[in-house]
Amino acid sequence: MSSRTAFVTGGAQGIGRGIATTLGAQGFRVAVVDLNQEAAQATAAAIAEAGGTATAVVADVTDTASVQAAVKAVTEELGPVEVAVNNAGWDDFMPFLDTTEDFWDRILDINFKGALRVAQAVVPGMAERGFGRVVTIGSDAGRVGSSLEAVYSGAKGGIIAFTKTLAREVATQGVTANTVCPGPTDTPALRTFTASSGQDAEKVLAGMTRAVPMRRLAQPADVAAAVAFFASDAAGYVTGQTLSVSGGLTMA
Questions:
Q1: Is the pLDDT of residue 195 over 80?
Q2: Mean pLDDT for the stretch of residues 117-122
Q3: Whether residues 191 and 102 fall in one domain
Q4: Does the annotation count 237 as an active-site position?
Q5: Which helix (H) or strand (E) holds 132?
């Protein structure tokens, strides 16, 4: 069990909720950081009802001042941020040639720069205290590519490379940085994206499932287990690593 403070962006729903509740169950004091205040409060309440400690914090990872204010609020309420989980993300399925520059900017601002903003806000304190865990949610799309997700794949590939470099730069200061790359995960967001792709959502999901050697989509708890390991004291000698949680969909 841990009593450290964890800052989980996009922590209200889907994979983020799975991460937040798993960390809460393991004793972390969890800041559920999300744009959706109502959903963040519900997740924080669920953690508290299960015997954990959590608070809901509204923040926008595309706004540096908002991220900094969230870190300050969490520090005052729960203590210094010792674990930062960059989970907030957004995507939409479409061929690259149909995308616009505004779409590129939104993808990069949320999925890439959002994690940079969080890291810049919390890593100096981690380094000063001599302990920290930065865990970024990447995607297998960023490792091997994914049809209809060209810009998202690029952003996630960038965040994998950024995390490795950050890991090198802070390795002597007690701070680790690792990436967890989910494969297809059964979340409300995935179902929304498949429904908006113009195809039969259930057929798309069935096709994804058949492609996975384990013949099922990931659940948020599957991803959360990997995050919890990287966040733990036991992972102190593991840094700069990229771990796929994909049921064998990718193996390299």
A1: no
A2: 98
A3: no
A4: no
A5: strand 132-137
pLDDT band at 186 (very low <50, low <70, confident <90, very high): confident
Residue 159 sits in the same domain as residue 189 = no
The answer on 167 and 198 residing in a single domain is: no
Is 218 a residue whose pLDDT tops 90? no
In a domain, 159, yes or no: yes
Residue 190 is predicted with a pLDDT of 76
Residue 11 falls within a domain, yes or no? yes
To which residue do tokens 């962006």 refer?
A: 9
Q: Report the distance separating Cα 171 and Cα 176, nearest Å.
A: 6
Q: Tell me the C-alpha distance between 234 and 241, whole Å.
A: 15
Give me the domain span that covers residue 80: 5-183+219-238
- Take residue 80 and report the two structure tokens written for it: 């210094």
Residue 49 falls inside a structural domain: yes
- Select which of 28, 112, 131, 152 is catalytic: 152
Give 204's contacts (C-beta < 8 A, 6+ positions apart): 194, 197
Residue 216: pLDDT band (50, 70, 90) is very high
Mean pLDDT for 182-192 is 82
How crowded is the C-beta side of 102, counted as CA atoms within 13 Å?
0
Q: Are 23 and 49 in contact (CB under 8 A)?
A: no
Q: Is residue 244 part of a domain?
A: no
Q: Is the same domain home to 154 and 209?
A: no
